[in-house]
Amino acid sequence: MSRRVAIIGTGHSKFGNRGDVNIAELAYESIRQALDEAGIEPREIDFAYVSNVGGWSSEPLPAVVALEYAGLTGIGTMRVEAACSSGSAAIKAAYDTIKSGEADIVLVLGVEKMNESPTPTVVEFIGRAGNYFWEFQNFGLTFPGYYALYATAYMARYGATEEDLCKVAVKNHYYASFNPKAQFPRKITLEQCMQSRYIAWPLKLFDCSPITDGSAAVILASEEVAKKVTDSPVWIAAIGTASGTSNLSRRSDFTHLEAARIAARMAYKKAGIDPENPVKQIDVAEVHDCFTIAEIMAYEDLGFAKPGEGYKLVREEQTYIGGVIPVNLSGGLKAKGHPLGATGVSMAVELAHQLLGKVERERQAPIKHGVALAHNIGGTGHYAYVTIYTLEKPREA
Amino acid sequence: MSRRVAIIGTGHSKFGNRGDVNIAELAYESIRQALDEAGIEPREIDFAYVSNVGGWSSEPLPAVVALEYAGLTGIGTMRVEAACSSGSAAIKAAYDTIKSGEADIVLVLGVEKMNESPTPTVVEFIGRAGNYFWEFQNFGLTFPGYYALYATAYMARYGATEEDLCKVAVKNHYYASFNPKAQFPRKITLEQCMQSRYIAWPLKLFDCSPITDGSAAVILASEEVAKKVTDSPVWIAAIGTASGTSNLSRRSDFTHLEAARIAARMAYKKAGIDPENPVKQIDVAEVHDCFTIAEIMAYEDLGFAKPGEGYKLVREEQTYIGGVIPVNLSGGLKAKGHPLGATGVSMAVELAHQLLGKVERERQAPIKHGVALAHNIGGTGHYAYVTIYTLEKPREA
Fold first, then answer.
1. How many CB pairs below 8 Å do chains A and B form together?
2. Which of B260, B267, B322 has its CA nearest to residue B296?
3. Torsions phi, psi of A284, nearest 5?
4. Which of A112, B97, B173, B220 pairs with A91 at a CA distance of 20 to 30 A?
5. Alpha carbon distance B3, B101 (integer Å)
6. What is the Cα–Cα distance from A306 to B182, expressed in whole angstroms?
7. pLDDT for res B137
8. How far apart are CA B221 and CA A394, in angstroms?
9. Which portions of chain B are predicted below pLDDT 50?
């Protein structure tokens, strides 16, 4: 018999420049909410996975520091890193630990404090998440440059425009304006985006996700525990994972991320979702819009649109509520913010709230099927995690 | 039905100052051996956990880089960190993934390249594995200082001497002299150790483990796969995990590591080992001798000796082959070397070889019960992992 795994508690800090707290305090904001929501005590937790990329914080190994501050000393723990998909990686590890029977209740904490370092240092460090020896050292590529390569290739092949990219930012800022946890809870106009300065052509300031401090937490539990503590569990139905080449010169093209396609197919297969028409079964998605072009590629890699047609979903506003599939109603990495290690966990919190009808009215997706999808990328498709959350208990594996 | 998990392949690089290879090449030395030993192809691997602390290497996020070099692009992966116990944490994660049914064959790679940074930088970074904000920043404590606190407290309370500490180093160098993979494969005398310079009183140069580059790999598999590919699987019978306070001032005393005791009790309970007399059931152990005092505390935390009597095992040479329980026949962290992320995986490789009677004759433990134990500490008991390996298939959980 397979053991099913549910989210029984969620927590989420305000994202932004959080110089007001240290990393343990920032983590605790989410841990406390998650414990309260689950209605459990710290001593009931069996294990904790801590998602954190680090490199900019003076506390480089924060797992034990954060757990001690939250009264969780004693339980086993480890830090997990898969670049910007670290949060989803930690959820996968916790899911496996519960499903294996090694634990019944596991905390997944995502936390990142990026503003302790000056921005150029942060951007340089993130640049090493690609391939250091070849690309970073030889060509000085950092992430706006990497995603600009994808944007130019995509635009050249399919005819998408800079306006199409900016429309992703406009949508995500629109929904962020209703999300009080977002770093930038305010609308922007297409003109504002188009007139913002270039960071790496064709990507402008408003095409880029920001440097963010933040935390998010979920408490996962076995079916047996979930039944006891909540009448509204959100189930993890399936997780798909894959990696890409570290070296971009070994990629077959620059208009999609192969790892995301593999991870999506794996998740769809496990969850019983038709890969040819997933939008018929999925109510809402959070995708990895570290840059606006990444959201458009995500539509295609996930099968929401055919290859080369993702930008049309944006142009026709089909990823707003009421469209083919609403995407990034949290504001996305773009406007909610992108504290690397917290991002995947933040997606889980958002989708649990969406499925349970608990988000602000203006950004609540209609829930018909009870199925939500998180798409979380590390590097430029170096890591990909696709996670399916459901209201219905998943089928027996 | 619970799924049992076995080691089906092992690999281990030469430990030392490995300026001759980059981090992917260093990793590949172990991955290639493990694949060859298991007799499987890269495409048969479902997932990879990469243990690496980093912070001193120019490639800070090495998982995808190492996998690409080894021809493993495509599979899901994440990096795992639990300070110096990262390798055992990665084994725990992989064990859970297979036991859960999410994968059948998982690679665990531990790799660390510490000599890319100058030694003071490495020592400073490791110092942050304690508690940065309070201890490191305010008092400048680094790891020799931390363990010197334990050594002085232990010596004051129980009457152990500097000679007792040095006898740990003499034993471990003795066995390292027969291990061609060790960083220091040579014997030392008690006088050499006693005359070496103080690093942090009472710890001298020869009481300290070195700065090491190295890699180790194990391939884990489900029982079904293990049966097909090998007639000599080594099983993971149980894993115990725990954490301690990050802040040393919150520890109850400085003569033991509470996390290690908790982890040991958990592992013994799961494996059916009597915690009052574990040496009756365990043939051989690798323990975390980052400093000589740590090996003596390990004897007590694991129940090999009563509290306050661990040093007598050393004084009476009871942890040599032929004694009560042979410990660190690989040479230990002290003389085999301590490439942080690789250490826990290296322990698994060593113990698999011990159980199968495959190590050099002079350092082969007699195997009566088919049971081996790995004790792997992160920080100064911030993390503890105790893993039990067996020749017999573990009981159904």
1. 195
2. B260
3. -160, 150
4. B220
5. 8
6. 55
7. 67
8. 25
9. none
Class of B5-118+211-229 in CATH: alpha beta
Give dist(CA B256, CA B300) in Å, integer: 8
pLDDT given for residue B1 in this prediction? 52
How confident is the model over A334-345, as a mean pLDDT? 98
Cα distances from B237 to residues B49, B314, B358, B371, in angstroms, run 20, 28, 20, 9
Rg over alpha carbons for chain A, rounded to the nearest Å, is 19
Q: Supply the pLDDT for residue A1.
A: 52
* Residue type (1 letter), B10: T
Say how many C-beta atoms besides its own lie within 10 A of residue A249's C-beta: 8
Across the interface, whether the CB atoms of B132 and A65 are under 8 A apart is answered: yes
Percent of chain A with pLDDT over 70: 96
Is the pTM value of this prediction over 0.90? yes
Please give the average per-residue pLDDT across A47-71, as a whole number: 89
- Residue B123 contacts A, CB cutoff 8 Å: no
Binary contact (A79, B82; C-beta < 8 A) = yes
How is chain B split among helix, strand and coil, in percent rounded to 5?
A: 40, 20, 40
Residue A397: predicted pLDDT: 55
Query: Residue for token digits 């661990």?
Result: B310
If 0-12 CB within 10 Å is exposed, 13-18 middle and 19+ buried, where does residue B58 land?
middle
**B76 touching A, CB under 8 A?**
yes
> Which of A233, A182, A220 has its CA nearest to residue A12?
A182
Angle at A144 between CA A140 and CA A148, to 5 degrees: 100
| Contact indicator for B257, B377 with CB cutoff of 8 Å | yes
Amino acid at A157: R
Cis peptide bond N-terminal to B202, omega within 30: yes
| pLDDT at residue number B396 | 67
Note if A84 is an active site residue: yes
pLDDT tens-digit series, residues A245-261 = 988 888 989 999 999 99
- Nearest neighbour of B81 by CB, restricted to A1, A79, A385: A79
ipTM: 0.97
Q: How far is CA B166 from CA A66, B289, B291, in A?
A: 36, 12, 10
Residue ranges per structural domain of chain B: 5-118+211-229
pLDDT digit string, tens, across residues B360-391: 999 999 999 999 999 999 999 999 999 999 99
Q: Does the distance separating the beta carbons of A68 and B250 come in below 8 Å?
A: yes
> Which residue from B305, B313, B308 is spatially nearest to B157, judged by alpha carbons?
B308
CA distances from A396 to A231, B6, B210 (A): 20, 25, 50
**Centroid of chain to Cα B124:** 21
Q: Residue A56 has what pLDDT?
A: 76
| Confidence label for A117 from pLDDT (cuts 50, 70 and 90) | confident
Compute the distance between CA of residue B117 and CA of residue B113 in angstroms, rounded to an integer. 9
pLDDT of A200 strictly over 80: yes
Nearest to B123 by CA among B105, B139, B141, B135: B141
Q: Span A84-108, mean pLDDT? A: 98
Which among A30, A86, A23 is positioned nearest to A58, based on CA atoms?
A23
Report pLDDT digits (tens) over A270-293. 999 999 999 999 999 999 999 999
User: Contact, B360 vs B317, CB < 8 A?
Assistant: no
